[in-house]
Amino acid sequence: AKLVESGGGLVQAGDSLTLSCVGSGFYFRGYDMSWVRRPPGRGPEWVSGITIGDNREHYADSVKGRFTISRDNEKNTLYLQMKNLKPEDTALYYCATGADPAVVISVADYRGQGTQVTVSS
User: Fold this and answer.
1) Per-residue b/e over 56-83, b at no fewer than 16 CB within 10 Å?
2) 34 and 47 in contact (C-beta within 8 Å)?
3) Per-residue pLDDT at 96
4) Are 20 and 78 within 8 A, CB to CB?
């Protein structure tokens, strides 16, 4: 089983990016999913989560109103649309199973290797 992220890059402050995470080898639609980021020199931060069934979205305060999480279970894909990016959003972004922030960071069943997002000022 694996998760593979894509869509990162180097952008300027105020720009937008959309990240994708494709799952394989496990029952993707049966898992809550989250995005987590690891800023340079710091520990992982939970960014956003989406639950199965009702597709309820949850966001960290730092990204609320700027980021949108979504999923396409037919494509086994999780997305993170990021708008109005700020330099403090610079991080390695990865997806993981689960929606509880503490669980996702510490004991997710599956997590990807990540895609780098760098925002210049």
Assistant:
1) ebbbbeebeeebbbebeeeebbbbbebe
2) yes
3) 97
4) yes
